[in-house]
Amino acid sequence: MTHQEFSDKYMGKPVDFDGKYGAQCVDLARMYIKEVLNISVQPEGVEGADEFFTGHESRPKQKAMFDCIAYTGNVQPPQGALLVFGPNKDNGNFGHIAICHKTTHQTVTVFEQDGIANLKAIKENRPQKGMYENTWRYNNLLGWLVKKVS
Fold this sequence. Notes:
By secondary structure, the chain is of the alpha+beta class. The chain is built from five helices and six strands; from the N terminus they run ααααββββαββ. It has a single domain, classed as endopeptidase domain like (from Nostoc punctiforme) (endopeptidase fold (from Nostoc punctiforme)), CATH 3.90.1720. A six-stranded antiparallel beta sheet has the order 1-6-2-3-4-5.
């Protein structure tokens, strides 16, 4: 599946890869790993999405499949990279992971899912919001994961 086919398939639809805790940002990333990157073995589990970056060196499955690139401000992430944002009050101090769609020097447009909003929707018996496109500044970006080239 291509990046665009993934977008067409999941835009507006909640993605709950593991069937736990509703449609989280990590669920969307894991579905992308499976369907677009064609990686059958998933990286190790996380408590917060920021661990995809902060714990990269201690995650052997992930380390074998992905290169982890720190954001320094000098290089923009490529389309399809899994962007990892640091914890803050807006993401419940769990960090965030999203799929890079396109970049400018000031912003990055991503495909993402808001796990905090979706957990609240479940508790309030409302529909979960699915995947959507959003634009962020780089200020909370830790770095990104890209599939290793064989």
